[in-house]
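Form 12-C: Joint structure prediction
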Amino acid sequence: MNSDNASAYWAANVRLLTICLVIWFVVSFGFGILLVEPMNSIKLGGYKLGFWFAQQGSIYVFVILVFFYAWRMGQIDRKFDVHEE
Amino acid sequence: MTNLQIWTYALVGLSFALYFYIAYRAQAGSTSDFYVAGGGVHPIANGMATAADWMSAASFISMAGIIAFKGYDASVYLMGWTGGYVLMAMLLAPYLRKFGKFTVPEFVGDRYHSKIARIVAVICLIIISLTYVIGQMKGVGVTFSRFLGVSMEVGLVVGMIIVFFYSAFGGMKGITYTQIAQYVVLILAYTIPVAFISFNLTGNPIPQIGLGAQLTDGSNMYLLDKLDQVVTDLGFKSYTDQHDTTINIFLLTMTLMIGTAGLPHVIIRFFTVPKVADARSSAGWALIFIALLYTTAPAVGAMARLNLMQTVQTGPVGSPDGNLSIEGRPQWMKNWEPTDLIKFEDKNGDGRIQYYNDGGLGKAQSDFAAANKALADAKDKTAAQANVDKAQAALDKATAAHAATKFGGFGWKGNEMTKVDNDIMVLANPEIAKLPNWVIALVAAGGIAAALSTAAGLLLAIASAVSHDLMKGIFTPNISDKTELMASRIAITIAILLAGYMGLHPPGFAAEVVALAFGLAASSIFPVLMMGIFSKRINGIGAILGMLTGIGVTLVYIFWFKGWFFVQGTEMAANIPANWLFGISPEAFGTVGAIANFAVAILVSRVTAPPPAHIQELVESVRIPRGASSAIAH
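Section 2 - Result
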C-alpha cells in the first residue's frame, strides 16, 4: 500500500482515538473527580451524580467506548483497505 | 466436620477437579502453545480469561472492604483498574498483536533496536510480576486456612501444586482455559451473596440498582442517604463525599490506569487472539467481564457497611440500650473472632459494644498499653519509662478532649470495635446476611479461583521473560524450540517455588509492593510501549534513558517515604501529607514518573540520531492491521 494511504489511515485512527480518550477523560477525571462536587448537587435516584459517575457511570462508559472504537476501527480498516482477510 | 466444611470441601474440590481436567485436555506441545496458546483463542473467551487473570485475590476479597470504609475516596480503584483497559485497547493491544511476537520485552528490544532496552524491560517485568504474585500466594493460603481449617502453610502448598500442574504443563493454553472456568466460579461467588443482600435491603436483587434505591425498612430513605446519616451520627466521615485531596485522587487514578495498561501479564493476553481486530474487541469483552465485578463492588461495600453499623448500633445513638449487647452478638461475629479479623473490648463496662469515631482516643489507649508492655520487657527502664510518660500525657489529653464530645456525654469510653478488617466485608458478608452454607462455601471457592488465576498468569509472564527474552533472546539464541519449551517449564517451576517461599515468609513490605508494581508499570512500561507505536522519532537511547528516569524518579519518591528498599528506619521523611511533594502520596507518584519518562525520551531522541529506516518501517507496519500472522518466534 502507498504511504499516503497509510498516513491518511493513521490520521483517521488518531482522530477517532482522540475523541474516545476525551470522552474517557471527561466521564472519569471530569465528572467523577474534578467536577464531583457540583455534579453531586444533581441526584440520580438515590445516587449523587458525581458519586455515580465515579463508582458506576464511568465504568459503563468505558465499556461502550472500547466496543465503539473496535466497531468504528473495523469500518475505517475497510475504508482504507487495510483490513485483515 | 460441620455442614459448612463439608460444603466447602465439596465445592472447592469440584472446582479443582474441573481445573485439572481442563489442564489435562490443553497440554502445550510447542512454544507457541506455551506462550500465546497457539494464537487461536476466541476474543470472548480471551476476554473472560483476561478478566480472571486481572481480578486478583485483592479485587475479590479486599476491594469491597476498602470501599466500605473509604466510600467515595475508594473510587480511585474502581476507575483506575477499569479505565486502564480503554488505554490498552486503543493505545497498545492491537499494535502489539500486529507485531506478532511472544513477549513485551521482545517488542521493546526490536522497536528500539537494543538488547539493553530489552533487558531493562525484562527487569521491570520481573519486579512487577514477582511483587504481585507474592500477594496472590498469600491470598491462596489465607483463604484455605479460613475456610478449610488447615494451616496457612498447608493451604499455600496445595495452591502451589495446583498452579504448577496447569501452568507448567499447559502454559498459556492450559492457563487460558482454566481461567475461563475460574472466572465463572469467581463471578458467581461474588454476585450471588450481594444479590440476596440487595434484595433484603431494597427489594431489588440487582446490586447496581439497589445501591441507588430506597430501603424497604419503612424509612423510605435512599440507601446511600441512610448510610451517610448512620456513619456521620457516629462521628465517621460521610460516605458519599470526597475527603482526600483532589490532586491525590486525580493522580492515583491516573497511575492505576496507566499502570494497568502497562502490566505485562495483562498485555500478553492480547497476543493469544487470531487477529488485530480481535485484540480490539477482546479488550472490550475483558472489560465487560471485569465491569460485572467492579460495578457490583460498590454495592457490596456500601451494603456491608450499613449492615455492620446497624448490627452494632441497634437503636438511637446515645440511648442506654441502643447498642449491641455482648451476650446477644450474632453468630458470625463469634465465628470470625478466632481469626482476629474482628475484635471488641468493653471499655466502659456496660456489657454493650460501641462502634464510633472516638477522635484518636482509641489510638492513645492502645499506644499507652503498648508502651507499658514495652516497659515490662525493656532492659533500659529509663527510656521505656519516658515513653510510658509520654503516652500517658497523650492519653490524658485525648481522654479530656473525648469527654467534651457528645460521645463522652453518653458515658462512652472509646471505640470498642477495636478491629474490623477490610477483608471481612466480603468473606463474612454471606454470614452477616444469614445466607445458606453453600453460598459461604462458594465464596471460598471464588476467592481461591481469583488468587490462582492471577498467580498463574503472572508466573507465565515471568517464565516467558526468563526463557524467551533472557535465554533465547540474549544469552543462548541457538536453542531449539523443544529446549526452549523445557526451559520455560523449568523457569515457571522455579518461579512457583520462589513465590511460594515468599508467600510463606512474606517480606515486611508485602503491603507496600502493590504501590510499587503499579508505579513501576506506569512509569516504565506504558510510556515506552506507547511512544514505540505513536512516534517514529523515539530512538533506543531515548527509550532507555526515559525508562531509567521514570523508574528512578518513582522509586526514589516511594523509598524516600517508605524507607530505602522498604527497610524500616531508613525513610528520609515521615510518610504524611505535609511532607509530600505538592501533596502527592507515594502510591500516586507513578504518573509523575511517567511524565518524566516521556519528557526525557523525547528530549534525548530529539538531540540524537533518528532510528534507522527498518525500525521506521517496523512502526509503519504495526500500525496497519493487514498482514498479521499468528504470534511467532524469530
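Section 3 - Comments
The mean pLDDT of chain A is 93. Chain A has one domain: 3-79.
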